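In the laboratory, one determines a bound structure by crystallizing the protein with its ligand and collecting diffraction data. In a computational setting the workflow is compressed into a single prediction: the sequence and the ligand go in, and a structural description comes out. We illustrate the idea with flavin-adenine dinucleotide.
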Amino acid sequence: MANQAAVDAFRSGLRGELIDPQSPNYNVARKVYNGMIDRRPRLIAKCADVADVIAAVNFARDQKMLVSVRGGGHNAAGLGVCDDGLVIDLSLIKFVRVDPKKKTVVAGGGSLWGDVDHATHAFGLAVPSGIIATTGVGGLTLGGGLGHLTRHCGLSIDNLLAVDMVLADGRFVTASAKENPDLFWAVRGGGGNFGVVTAFTFKAHDISIDYAGPTLYPLEDAAEVLRWFSKFIVKAPNDLGGFFAFLTVPPGPPFPEHLHLKKMCGVVWCYSGPLKKAEQVFKPIRAFKKPALDLAGPIPHPALQSMFDPLFPPGLQWYWKADFFRELGDEAIALNVKHGALMPTMLSTMHLYPIDGAASRVKNNATPWAYRDAKFAQVIVGVDPDPAKKDTISSWAKDYWSAVHPYSAGGAYVNFMMDEGEDRVRATYGKNYARLAKIKKRYDPANLFRVNQNIKPK
Ligand SMILES: Cc1cc2nc3c(=O)[nH]c(=O)nc-3n(C[C@H](O)[C@H](O)[C@H](O)COP(=O)(O)OP(=O)(O)OC[C@H]3O[C@@H](n4cnc5c(N)ncnc54)[C@H](O)[C@@H]3O)c2cc1C
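The predicted complex, in structure-token form:
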């Protein structure tokens, strides 16, 4: 417990706001995206700038307080917030600066991907991120970052040029290929273990209008679709992305009424190459089988990135399980089809993201992301607005995962995991774990930053 004089001094020195359980906005400020998470921090420091972040890190360390760092607050395990500690909330450090000549983008540590998409689109540029615009740039990037553009442009970390960070001892540093290269290696997948990132510099790509959207198929055809998809996508041109999904059709436009609330399977495509070639690229997709619904067509990149945001507002209950796969054989496909059909609620889903193409041109040890040779990242997510369904959605995700896990490559994408313990973290980083632990010891020997998928200093 921090002493009151120290809290008062910390508060008076902040340009942002220090929130405590007596503050009227405490209950709003402690909420994160996953409604299942209900933590009660002792203090929440809404940092306005780097100076505030330095003060917050020094305060937490000197007062021996548990500390969590909150970027966009989207983490499934709620790792942006902690019980009885200090939350370093970066949501006010939100800015994006695009350099259209150099095609680089600097984003504040508390920015959301929607902020980046909005700013870059004005210049016909895009930075590879995920599939939901309300996700934080911070957590998504530090864990890797996979999404619509992964096959074309690589993971978000493959497009990261530099970070500005506040370290556990309060020092402010820049890490890039030239400056503090060990730290730069570690932050490209090692999560929030190494310090608080106050700004990210990315390389941007000439991507403005995609040819994208879902093609949906009846659930009865799921085995055939999954078999075809898993073979087709890894041979497709790299500027075609597409993830397979089990889903329930939402009861509203643009979906036709006869499909409303029907469990189906499908692929959400994103072709980000020259538009004039799009119809040609989609020929084999349309030739494979006539979909029950084909919504693929030209769409501005930010519209695609935010397409699912209204379906998944903050505050829903989420339970996640994940794995990497090198291949999908007939048995694994059959188990996926069996458990996919058992989706317990309308919003529950399974996504299978291809992580080949540009992402697989990077070596397994070039960044902490140790599964460059895997072909797919799977995430099974039980989702529902009703807290009473917590157990139903969790058991479905756990059962599904237990059935398919024996066919997986071992670890999982850190950003798709709940709080699953050290063995899972080690499995995820594989041979890169030992190097991460060494760098952790150098930059955070007392493990101040441990509310994350934790790497123990060694
Ligand atoms: C609906 C939804 C869709 C998603 N889709 C995708 C997707 O398509 N692709 C994908 O790759 N991931 C996806 N994710 C997963 C997402 O990448 C993680 O949840 C990620 O942790 C979110 O980052 P955040 O900043 O919003 O989270 P937070 O909860 O704020 O933080 C998560 C972790 O990152 C650390 N952190 C955050 N910002 C910083 C910072 N600036 N400096 C230091 N540490 C920091 C935190 O300490 C914490 O440990 C999705 C998540 C959700 C909920």
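DSSP finds 14 helices and 17 strands in the chain. Keep in mind that any predicted model is a hypothesis to be tested, not a measurement.
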